[in-house]
Please model this.
Amino acid sequence: MRRPGTWHAVGVPRSPEQIQQEIDAARESLAATLDQLVHRGSPQRLSAQAQDRVKQWLASPAGQATLAAAGLFVTFVVVQKVRRARR
Model:
């Protein structure tokens, strides 16, 4: 059974103008889809989005705790290296 809005190659008489209009509409639709994909995959946009996410995470309590723990770890490692260098 045929659903309305679907295209069938047999039994649908169309004029050359209708065919050209369908081709033009399909071309415009494909161009719009391609533009959306280019926008979504833009390196600048993805980079900015990642930076925003990192900034939001660092502003959160979990991000601040992780940053503090990393700072303590680095401080511990530096102190250990200084102590070993003095021996």
Summary: The first helix runs from residue 16 to 40.
